[in-house]
Amino acid sequence: MRFGVVPSSVRRDVLAWHGSAGQAWLDGLPKTVWRLQRLWSLRTDGPPYGGGSHSYVVPVRRENGEQAVLKVIYRDAENAAEPTALHQYAGDGAVRLHEYDPETGAMLLERAVPGNRLKSTRFFGHRTPEAAWRRIGIACGLYRRLWRPLAEQNGFPALPAATDMLDLWREEYGDRSGAARKGPGAARLDLALELCDRLSDPPELGIGNRDTHLANIVSAEREPWLVIDPKPYLAERAFDGGFLLFKLQLLGPHSGTVLLDAVAEGLGVDVERLRAWALLRAIDHLTEVETERDVAAAEATVAALELA
């Protein structure tokens, strides 16, 4: 298998976030890809996919000619359990996992064809509010299907817990001398701590997803739409909607109570727990943005979710 150039976004982010460990991963990629090519009898079927931040992803063909995707991840706490979720989904609303390499976390995945992202798909009247509702309905339907009780993991990585996210936020936001207390989100951190306490006792636990957004859903032939790139957590159902609602509120065109109610109904979750998770994700975003424009947008998103 000929090794393709690592996308610039992947190289940049892995080095920025992981330093020397990221460089070691990049240096070892050609050998890793070569080993997996031999292990799984693959041949390259095009250049690596662009974009992304933590993965080298390239189209391949299997020995029988079937189209597939080889995904080699920089393994961290957020994405290590991706193969666990895909194994348990078994192709029900998400791309199938064909093979998994425990040594590296690499995966051989079903290739979704044509693979157009829901976020940028042109429906009739794609710029209208009606088209936006259609995208939201598709996303909610898929993420509602994918939430399920966690079965025996059978050698796959354990899922991190959503309550661990709450503990990290408590530690960061509760530090009165910490960086978060000096940033643009400082005025919202006491609210965030209240929300962490409110969400600390989930009503149920299953496979949730912390990275729910419209760019992680692509068109396919086996099903009209499939989820890719899940970031699974052991979490309640409302956890899924936290990031989805936050991103939809941030980007529009819909907002406020009507959006909150639509996402809650679409996911089949409690409105107030959904709002709490979305507010936490929005406040977390507010603590990280830097430009005046981004701060203003993040503050408006937090305010809209509070008032919804």
Briefly say what this structure is:
This protein has helices at residues 8-40, 82-89, 129-146, 162-174, 189-198, 237-251, 256-267, 271-288, 292-307, and strands spanning 43-44, 55-61, 67-73, 97-100, 107-110, 206-209, 217-219, 225-227, 232-235. It is α+β, with helices and mostly antiparallel strands.
Beta-strand residue percentage: 5-15%
- The average pLDDT value, as a whole number, equals 93
How many beta-strand runs? Answer: 9
Poorly predicted runs are: none
By CATH, the architecture of the largest domain is named Alpha-Beta Complex
| Strand order in the sheet with the most strands | 1-2-3-5-4
Query: Can you write the helix and strand succession as a string?
Result: HEEEHEEHHHEEEEHHHH
Estimate percent helicity. Answer: 40-55%
Approximate shape: globular
EC number: 2.7.1.72
Enzyme class: transferase
Protein name: Kinase
Keywords: Kinase, Transferase
3D structure, described in words:
The chain folds into two domains: 8-110, 2-Layer Sandwich (Phosphorylase Kinase, domain 1), CATH 3.30.200; 118-307, Alpha-Beta Complex (Aminoglycoside 3'-phosphotransferase, Chain: A, domain 2), CATH 3.90.1200. The protein has nine helices and nine strands. Helix content is 46%, strand content 12%. It has a five-stranded antiparallel sheet with strand order 1-2-3-5-4. The protein has a two-stranded antiparallel ribbon with strand order 6-9. The chain has 308 residues and is α+β, with helices and mostly antiparallel strands.
